Amino acid sequence: MGIRDDAVEVRAQGWRRLAALHGLIETELERRLQAEHQLSVVEYTVLDALSRQDGWHMRMRQLARAAALSSSATTRLVTRLEDRGLLTRILCADDRRGIYTELTPAGQALLGRARPTHDQALTESLAEATRQPELEGLVAFLQA
Question: I need a labelling partner for 50 at 20 to 30 A (CA). Which of 8, 69, 71, 142 fits?
């Protein structure tokens, strides 16, 4: 194995560690958010992204980027959340093709209840990851 092969293997190991950490965290977040608030991780991510916007709304394209979803997946997700009364869509006043997505008061309230669950699950998942030697260094790096 040459130097070039070694570098590729190091990057591959790093990627596997990152994927393992992501999987560990996402599994716990999904379990807890579903059990306690009937929210998926991606639904929580959308509500959270909207809550962090000035004016509480975003264009669908921005929301897709924030949630790391395709446009069609974002549209389906927004429709589900809108059906639950957590979001609403608003036509852009200066561009009739533009659609904003906005958090409703019910969405804000649910996010407020879910955020402590999310934060606790994240903290506990990271603590669990530090007990796994292959993930310990990555967690330390992320928390620095």
Answer: 142
